[in-house]
Amino acid sequence: MEQIIFHIDVNSAFLSWSALEKLKNGEEMDLRTIPSIIGGDTSTRHGVVLAKSIPAKAYGIRTGEPVSDALKKCPFLVSCPPDHRLYHEKSRLLMAHLADICPDIEQVSVDECYMDFTPVSAHYTDPLSAACQIKDGIRETFGFTVNIGISDKKVLAKMASDFRKPDLVHTLYHNEIEKKLWHLPLSSLFMCGRSSVDTLHNLGILTIGDLAKADPFIITSHLKSHGKMLWEFANGIDDSRVRPIPAEAKGIGNSTTLSKDALTMDEIRKCLLALSESVASRLRRAHMKASMVSVEIKYASFQTSSHQATLQAATNDSGCIYQTACHLAAELWNGSPVRLLGIRSSRLEDEDAPVQLSLFDLGTEKPLTEKQKSLNEALDKIRSKYGKDSIVRGTLLK
Question: Is residue 200 within 8 Å of 187, Cβ to Cβ?
């Protein structure tokens, strides 16, 4: 299967996160709706612009320019100092949220990451609808927006996420670069800075397409190895892979915003069944078992509540996870319409770890039989090859 890569980038991250924090603390004005920046001090006119609002962009204010220059363009510009402790916490929560969707995350800065969507693609209808679901879920969960770029190449996914903003999803597959990329100016090419742009302009190269069609030997003679890289990027050449940072797995989960609010326990159970199979499948793919399961419910009023339970024996079986999730949901649900449901597994251990049962455990939860394990493996293989809907439980048939 050809790899599918998402590049997820928070829109005006520092400004959005500061704006949300100020609103949370009682301020009425949303920084995102007025000409504003995160950066220096307007009283001393020092520092540079770290982030800008869309209204500030309309005045020609650019990220990285001195605050003094920005104030000349917009004298009533509102400037706020950065809060890096807040930004790192917002970033941590976002990355944990994304890792619950797909564990193969490569974080490249505080506000952006790559996701190798390939291993979980079978659980979604198509990459575009999955990216829209992820984007909308971030906005509903955290209150800020992201752009997501989709491609079969990392560099193209990065450039796709920089297309029109905010709160949008764009594709830029290798076979789309001539139509979507080549007409753009050189400054839109990833890693093509002002000095490289000036050098290429002197060679009569004005667009990304001009660079893609140019003789690479001429480019490298002027820009050395950096020129070779730019020429490759212009042609969509990039063999790099998403490299998740090695870390101890803390949990695997999945959640879904329902197309229609769930009003009955039967509707809730059907959704929990689908989520349980997704979580169990990801646990098996990671060769892990979980000894704790938690359920999250978000109501139509956006009130959120959760509950967790420790299992008597670690498992990666969808049936065990489903039974526990249903029990938790029955205790948790207050009867109100449900907008979102989520299941998270934690306290992970290797699937080959020995099972230790006490005398009190005997006769309660039994380890999976070899027949059950073989059935799970067969189902995983079928869904991986033919898609998540190739084989489903009868209760989930629409």
Answer: no
Q: Is 72 helix (H, G, I), strand (E, B) or coil?
A: helix
Tokens of 193: 């800075």
Handedness of CA 266, 272, 278, 284 (dihedral sign): negative
Helical (H) or strand (E) element with 15? helix 13-24
Phi and psi at residue 193, in whole multiples of 5°? -85, 180
Q: Cite the active site residues.
A: 112
Pairwise CA distance, residues 381 & 329, whole Å: 30
Tokens of 182: 């080549």
Query: Alpha-carbon torsion 248, 142, 5, 121, what sign?
Result: positive
C-alpha 392: how far from its chain's center?
26
Residues pairing with 106 in the sheet: 114
Smallest CA-to-CA distance from 123 within 314, 6, 247, 280 is with 280
Asked whether 184 and 207 are in contact (CB, 8 A), the reply is yes
Which secondary-structure segment (H or E) carries 223? helix 216-234
Position 219 scores a pLDDT of 96
- Residue 273 near residue 262 (C-beta atoms within 8 A): no
Render the burial of 188-216: b for 16+ CB within 10 Å, e for the rest: ebeebeeebbebbeeeebebbbbbbebeb
Mean local confidence (pLDDT), 352-356: 61
Handedness of CA 222, 225, 226, 229 (dihedral sign): positive
User: Tokens 């349980």 identify what position?
Assistant: 276
Whether the model pTM is above 0.85: no
pLDDT digits (tens, 9 = 90+) for 332-344: 898 889 989 999 9
